[in-house]
Amino acid sequence: MLRKRDMEEKKDSGTRWIAGVEPPAELRGRDMISVYETEYREQPERLAQLFRGYQNDSAIRKELDTLREMSRSSGPILLIGMGASYCSCITGASYLQSGGRSAFALDASEWLHYSATWDQAALSLLVTASGESAELVRLCEKAAQQPLALLCNNDRSTCWSLIRNKLPILAGPEYGNATKTYTNATAACIVLASHILGRSWHEEAAPIVESYSRSLDALFQQRRTIEEFCRGAANIEIIGRGPAYGAAIMGALCIREMTGQRAAPHSGGGFRHGPLLDVNESHVAIILALGRTATLGVTLAKDCLSRGGRVILVESVESDESPHSERLLPIRIDPVPGPWEGITSVLVPQALTLAIAERFGAKLAPRFQYGEMKE
Fold it and tell me: What's the CA dihedral at 169, 315, 203, 129 to 10 degrees?
């Protein structure tokens, strides 16, 4: 088995396929909208696969135990990533902080070039879907003597080969914008954080997959309504707090990269103290009013409406205070226990992205190979 794999790697040594797997010819002939929709709809099963692996695979369970022991040293826990992976880090760090464990989400490029305090961390988790991002590779090379672990979707990557302690994302190859890799990486960060905090997550797994799947199906049906509501907007701003702040950043990345539509993320507090002042009729705010700070999101929605803006208010409860109107579109997603809103809330901008791409075309082509990785 190992010899066969080594021969395949040598044969394809000049081609860096996504996730180390050559895609079938039929898939390489599809356009981005088709690929993106397939990967969007695939997310519940990939999430269920991750839960099964993290529950039943003895090697993964052993690695979780090892990282929990490492985390007991003094100093904070650092979750470090770029792009979509950084968004996953935010949710994991938020959950650890809320459980009383000092933790921070860090941008890998900033950490690479501007930090000289790595030795003060109890544990650093590097998160990367590809395992080939230039900054993450350099951090892996730089941190040989640090208490370090890797969360990665590519077991044939440079990062995977450099790090001893590692966990898989189990999302399968991804050729469109980050959807299932974000969902699974975020779920893995939550599972690891739960293990570190001594909180059980196993009994939540099946209900979370069911809730996630129902929300995805409902939003897929609503996607054109969401897109119609946003038409004519000069900019779209996505606002979240806590676990949903990472989803807000991921959602804005998804819209901008796939469609070219201007979109920007904010924390709830960050939006209130500045950007709220220029809200007008050209503005659409997608407010993720979920979790322990949901009421703050509802209040912010009212303030945006009072300034003439349009609001998509995402909640997990029915509310008579938020009726559908010309400038308010309430969206209900299934309730999940915290911090799992970090994965359910991103389904709204994902669905909007698909609808915009279906109407105007996608700005990206599917990517089947890793290109040049620049810092």
Answer: 0
Q: Which of 168, 199, 230 lies at the terminal end of a domain, its last residue?
A: 199
Pair 82, 126: CB distance under 8 Å = no
Length of the chain: 375
- Maximum CA extent, the chain: 67
Q: CA 238, CA 15: separation in Å to the nearest integer?
A: 37
Domains contained in the chain, number? 2
pTM greater than 0.85 (yes/no): yes
CB atoms near residue 196 (< 10 Å): 24
> What's the rounded Cα separation, in Å, for the pair 52 and 202?
10
In angstroms, the CA 360 to CA 344 distance is 26
Is-cis flag, bond preceding 24, omega within 30? no
Q: How confident is the model at residue 96 (pLDDT cuts 50, 70, 90)?
A: very high
Range of the domain at 99: 10-199
Quick: pLDDT tens for 270-325. 999 989 999 999 999 999 999 999 999 999 999 999 999 999 999 998 766 668 88
